[in-house]
Design a protein that fits this description.
The complex is a heterodimer of chains A (308) and B (249). Chain A is an alpha/beta fold. In chain A, 24% of the residues lie in helices and 28% in strands. Chain A is globular and about 60 Å long. With 249 residues, chain B is an alpha/beta fold. In chain B, helix 2 packs across helix 5 and helix 3 packs across helix 4. Chain B starts with a strand and ends with a helix. The model of chain B has no long low-confidence stretch (mean pLDDT 96). The chains are: A alpha/beta (308), B alpha/beta (249). Chains A and B meet through helix 3, helix 4, strand 5, strand 7 and strand 8 of A and helix 3, helix 4, strand 7, strand 8 and strand 9 of B. Strand 11 of chain A pairs antiparallel with strand 9 of chain B.
Chain lengths: 308, 249
């Protein structure tokens, strides 16, 4: 029994999802190997080798893997993953993209978005937008799994495990990377942040999201938004927290001008502490908030910023 | 170019989900069922390609018992040309669905297959990618923009942190994200017209695909309820609570 974990990274940094997946892998039982695929990613492989529990890191360094195209990565994972009992990737847009290809080509089911491990073959995952929780058991000989990293703690550190190179280069002729527009931000990413402050329709327009900046700076927080704010065109979609956006579970989540639609709650209700600021005291967000403050956000936000 | 659009019948997204008393599944008795929202976006995109003259025919396929014909008719009312129902009572996993769809792709030879990125019941986000792998085709998942350029398709994808654009050789598989388009409402005349559009029924058993799943659902439970907390009077009290009680700042 050995488990292959596909490392989440952006060719510059190893992402925190990897360490959390290794924690999940540790609960399944078996040696843990990490596959790092990308371009110029040797340093990332060395970081992965220092995550407690990792016995070996395999690095596939080639231009073909830089953009994480599903066609190339899936075939690489199939090649490197031969003989493993479990193959894990993060339930990010990268993992969700290539892992079902791996499962289909292995002729096994994929268990998506697990939030807990009961044993080596039994896992817990949300269905119906988190409105029901299913416990499922896989009888497939290889378990192909995507992990909701926010549901697991990060692993500790260790002395570096060995790093091996995989010479494999797989490049599909049918799919080609054209361009990428990533939102530039000095702030932490939503899925990795310890503190998140999110705005909803109550922010009234995109400019008012600037009111969140000062608070975010002081708390080292990421800034998110509800789907209503995204649909209204206030902010880009990659800020969306919710069932159709990012699923987060920070230590502190501050919801500002967000009513608390089910689809938003599905994305943040596992946060440790939830604060709601809303002028409507009947807003459903108060039913899940640890601390609710009824008030006009345009008065509350500046006051909050100056008192931090 | 022919466009194939697989669609799924799911619980309507406005219905509150309840787990059954036996804790084995979500209770679907007498609940309103609809076309999966992401599938509806896929139908709309295919119909728009036809209206632009890029697509010549839009074929909709759904897998399930007779009741899923309702969702096929919905898609036909939105502008699809004909439907295929693959009849089965078995509750299929994504892999089995993808295998059946791969057979349909083999038969119909579409230039493009557009699917929803996930269904709002099982939330798997697998079928399109599995279909692409089984057919040996390239994929553009979580699409927010689709443009046909000769014998290729350019797909702008919603990825964590922004947007990524890929170019795929046709035939290809595309899965839809929410912002790809806003589906139209079917007009009454189109709903009437849809009733006369062709709908072929095929038995899943005739496709030679093993339908049983290796994944067993042991139990389904409601999520842990989060208890509401307290209301604070002002910002000062809030900051104090966060510092001294919750200790998160």
């Amino acid at each position: 029994m050995a488990i292959l974990v596909y490392a989440e990274h952006d060719n510059a940094h190893l992402k925190s999802e990897t360490s959390k997946m290794i924690n999940a892998a540790g609960q399944m039982g078996g040696d843990i190997h990490v596959l790092v695929a990308g371009e110029n990613c040797q340093a990332i492989a060395e970081d992965a080798a220092k995550i407690a529990g990792v016995q070996k890191v395999i690095v596939a360094d080639a231009a073909a893997y830089k953009d994480q195209l599903a066609e190339n990565i899936a075939d690489l994972v199939l090649e490197v993953g031969e003989g493993y009992s479990h193959i894990l990737a993060a339930a990010t847009t990268t993992g969700k993209n290539f892992m079902p290809r791996v499962a289909a080509l292995l002729d096994v089911a994929q268990i998506s978005d697990i939030i807990a491990v009961e044993s080596g073959d039994t896992f817990v995952r949300p269905i119906y937008a988190g409105n029901a929780i299913a416990t499922v058991q896989s009888e497939d000989n290889v378990k192909v799994i995507t992990v909701r990293a926010s549901a697991f703690d990060a692993s500790a550190e260790q002395d570096a495990a060995p790093v091996e190179a995989s010479g494999s280069v797989i490049e599909s002729a049918k799919s080609e990377f054209v361009s990428q527009e990533l939102t530039e931000s000095e702030r932490p990413e939503l899925t990795a942040a310890d503190v998140i402050i999110s705005g909803g329709r109550g922010m009234q327009n995109g400019d008012n999201f600037a009111l969140l900046n000062g608070i975010a700076d002081k708390l080292g927080a990421a800034i998110g938004a509800s789907r209503a704010a995204v649909d209204a065109g206030f902010v880009p979609n990659d800020m969306q927290v919710g069932q159709t956006g990012k699923i987060v579970a920070p230590q502190l989540y501050i919801a500002v001008g967000i009513s608390g639609a089910i689809q938003h709650l599905a994305g943040m209700k596992d946060s440790k502490v939830i604060v709601a600021i809303n002028k409507d005291e009947e807003a459903p967000i108060f039913q899940v908030a640890d601390y609710g403050l009824v008030g006009d956000l345009f008065e509350v936000l500046p006051e909050l910023e100056s008192s931090l | 170019m022919k466009v194939l659009v697989p669609v799924k019948r799911v619980i309507d997204y406005n219905v509150k989900v309840r787990v059954n008393a036996e804790n084995t599944a979500v209770d679907l008795t007498n609940t309103k069922m609809s076309i999966n929202p992401f599938c509806e976006i896929a139908v709309e995109e295919a119909v728009r390609l036809k209206e632009k003259g890029t697509a010549t025919e839009v074929v909709v396929v759904s897998i399930g018992d007779k009741s899923c014909q309702e969702q096929i008719r919905t898609a036909l009312a939105l502008g699809a040309d004909r439907g295929i129902q693959i009849d089965t009572d078995v509750n299929l996993d994504s892999l089995q669905v993808a295998k059946l769809l791969a057979k349909v792709v083999e038969e119909e030879e579409p230039g493009l297959v557009i699917l929803g990125k996930q269904s709002i019941d099982s939330d798997n986000n697998q079928t399109g990618q599995m279909l692409a792998a089984l057919c040996g085709l390239p994929q553009g998942t979580f699409a927010s923009e689709v443009a046909i350029e000769g014998d290729a398709v350019s797909v702008t994808r919603e990825v964590d942190g922004g947007l990524q654009t890929v170019k795929l050789a046709l035939p290809a598989i595309v899965t839809t994200d929410l912002r790809l388009n806003e589906p139209r409402y079917a007009s009454l005349p189109n709903i009437m017209k849809a009733k006369r559009k062709p709908l072929a029924v095929k038995s899943a058993a005739d496709f030679g695909v093993a339908l049983e799943s290796k994944v067993k659902v042991l139990k389904v439970t409601p999520p842990a309820e989060r208890q509401g907390g307290i209301k604070v009077a002002d910002v000062a009290e809030l900051v104090d609570k966060l510092k001294t009680e919750a200790k998160v700042i």
